[in-house]
Amino acid sequence: MFCSPAQPASCADITHARKLGLVKHLTASPVAVELLADAGYQGLGAQTGGRVVTPPHCKFKKSPPEWYEEIYERQRKAHSSRRIRVEHRIAHLKSWRALARHHGRREHLSDTIQAISGLLSHQQTTTRGARQP
Q1: N or C: which end of the chain has fewer CB within 10 A?
Q2: Helix 109-131 crosses helix 66-94 at what angle (to 10 degrees)?
Q3: How many whole angstroms separate alpha carbon 49 and alpha carbon 51?
């Protein structure tokens, strides 16, 4: 799980990813990595050679053909099914009291998020290791 540093002002997801150099990092990486993103990152798939996978974009705003609705819904559900683990991780991260009721200084929020994310990653790897015979 990747958690970017907190920014002082509101910013669109895709703009924040571009500022952090995510596009350059993904296109320059020799390892084929696939990121399952939400609709806030639409457009990054074309810029990264398909490494960022977003839900399908609805091409018809008003009265889409019946055949298109079926295809669109099937693609949307397939993406949602693959991304459910990401959404659960985000929800687990937000459930921590330190983030749910953050009253501290904004300068320390990034460190808190990184620490909790590290704890969750460690917890997940140790839990997986314990289940294996």
Answers
A1: C
A2: 100
A3: 6
